[in-house]
Each structure stands twice: as C-alpha cells, then as structure tokens.
Write a structure and sequence with these properties.
- By secondary structure, this protein is of the alpha/beta class.
- Helices cover about 25% and strands about 25% of the residues.
- Strands 3-2-1-4 form a 4-stranded parallel sheet, with helices on both faces. Strands 5-7-6 form a 3-stranded antiparallel sheet, covered by helices on one side.
- The longest helix has 16 residues.
- The chain starts with 9 loop residues before the first helix and ends with a strand.
Length: about 160
C-alpha cells in the first residue's frame, strides 16, 4: 500500500472511542494495537490511560506513550496483553490480517462508497464463523464524513 487514506473519516473512530470509553468507565483493563503507519496517522496519537502498542518492522523506532513491538509473538507475550480484558486492534490492513484469527469480536464501520483506487482492505468476514450482534442505523454524509456509513458488531461463533 501507499500508506495514505482515501478519505478522512471521523465516524468510524467514534465507534472505537465508544467501545474503549465503555471499557474505561467499567474499569476494564484495555489496550490498543496499531501498525506504525496507522498509529502515526492518528490525529491525537496515543490515547491517555490506555496501553498503546505499536507493531513496527523498524526495531529502532520509538513512539511517545506507546510500547514498540517487532512481531505478533512479542505483542502476545507482553504481560499487559495477557492481563488485559479487552485488546482493540485498530489498524492498518496488515495488522488486521495478522490478528484476525485471534479476535472474538469485531467493531466494524462500513462506508457506503467504493474506493476505486483502494489497495488495502479489512479481511473478509465469513458469516459461517461470525454472527452479527448489532447494527446501527445508517448515518448520512456530513461535514466530517464524506460518505454515508453504519456500524456493526460481530461475535465469533465458537
């Protein structure tokens, strides 16, 4: 990929913030994992009062208020991950692929638009392995979100 986003989209971030905030107010230990390019694209960087983990191929790279890891195994072996009740994998596409089989729940924002020049995608959700837990109403495009979108929460069928 070219490490640029096709659109700035604040609506999807609100779903994550809502889930992360509910974990915080219920005093649930949580963490978030991101790839280095995605982490660097976040307008506010590391979230306060959270464990922020950045997966990077550059072992020399240091991120403010985040733990750097160079492999999935390194992330999974962190004591903080083993002790977390919730771990949010927030992107980008390669990071989603690496953690997808470990996920129990998916918080997905679906944008009602086809991006013809897109080169990175969220893994396909196989409905034989996932059930829809909830779906929001559709939100209309507005000054912050160029396209209509909706949220869906999926749970893995065990």
């Amino acid at each position: 990929g070219n490490a640029t986003l096709n659109t700035r989209f604040e609506g999807g971030y609100s779903l994550f913030v809502g889930a992360a905030y509910s974990a915080m107010i219920y005093d649930v230990e949580s963490a978030r994992v991101a790839g280095d390019h995605y982490f660097e694209s976040l307008p506010k960087g590391a979230l306060p009062n959270r464990v922020n983990i950045v997966l990077t191929k550059d072992e020399e790279k240091i991120f403010d208020d985040a733990i750097s890891c160079s492999s999935i195994d390194e992330v999974m072996n962190l004591r903080v991950i083993k002790n977390c009740e919730k771990c949010f994998v927030i992107g980008g596409a390669e990071i989603y692929k690496h953690f997808f089989d470990l996920a129990d729940k998916l918080y997905v924002t679906s944008i009602r638009h086809t991006f013809e020049d897109a080169d990175a995608f969220f893994p396909e959700i196989d409905i034989d392995n996932w059930r829809i837990n909830s779906v929001s109403d559709e939100f209309k495009a507005d000054e912050k979100n160029e396209f209509p979108y909706f949220f869906a929460v999926y749970e893995r069928i065990r």
